[in-house]
Amino acid sequence: MPLLEFTSKGIYCSQANVYLDPWRGVNKALITHGHSDHARWGSQHYITHELNVPIIKHRLGSISVVGKRYGDPFNINGVQFSFHPSGHVPGASQIRVEYKGEVWVFTGDYKVQSDGISTPFEPIKCHTFITESTFGLPVFQWEEPYRIHEKINIWWAENQAQKTTSLLMGYSLGKIQRLLKHLDPSIGTIYTHGATDEMTMVLRAYLDLPATKRITAETSKKEIEGNLVLAPPAVMGSTWIKKLGNLSTGYASGWMAFRGARRRRAVDRAFVLSDHADWNGLLSSIKATGCENVITTHGYTDLFAQYLSANGWNAKTEKTQYEGETLENSTEE
Prior knowledge:
The chain is an alpha/beta fold and 333 residues long. The chain has eight helices and 19 strands.
């Protein structure tokens, strides 16, 4: 039996009788991060990184959960586990699994570019590496993040000069806080949609973020005019958006690298900013682990595995219910 196997409930370690990011309710679940495709309701007990505890409590309600620090090992029936930074979003981890000298690493989701809010990705030596491949094609090459944030602030300032409100959309966990961290408050006031405001409030205890104002039923169009609004992508086409008045819309996602994706979103400005590794990031991460075996999940799995196999790795794909960052995943990650 392999140390980790892919089952109908999720990634399973039979020796420890635990699941990693299960997509069905189980007795004991080890969770990489708080996005809804990786942290699901219904398990009896959860173990995750300590910063991810308030995040999944906010999302899943009253649950039995234990938080661990990065790098601190814990033993379950002879199997040693530990959480290590994945750089994906605040509190996100890779899970290292060791039994009788064999080491596997499950990444969940990860990125290698620093975002200013998440603990940076840490490569972990292993024999088998389970990697996402959301952007596992050579076409995906991310620009330096500071350049994207400069473009966002310039866009906002230009809109303000025209008395146009800037609506900037991104996932409520991770992306919104990343955008907020690098906004220039001297330009104007930063407003938030209720969903983004609630998750940001959870994280304010751990992150240094600019002040924001939540949009309520009493907030007027005149008050918002020329300022910036942070909201989840689901607001596009909703009645809520009407209260914002004259708008310029922007969307932050790795998928904005595709012109077709920009047209589908029907936004005025597309900012290519992802919380996942690009092609070079995926390859450099795999090389840094020194692994022999690679299992690709969610994304361009087959093409990425074929490339790895042709370049010296023992690579294969496995089906999961993880979505990663998708254009259709419009409410939040």
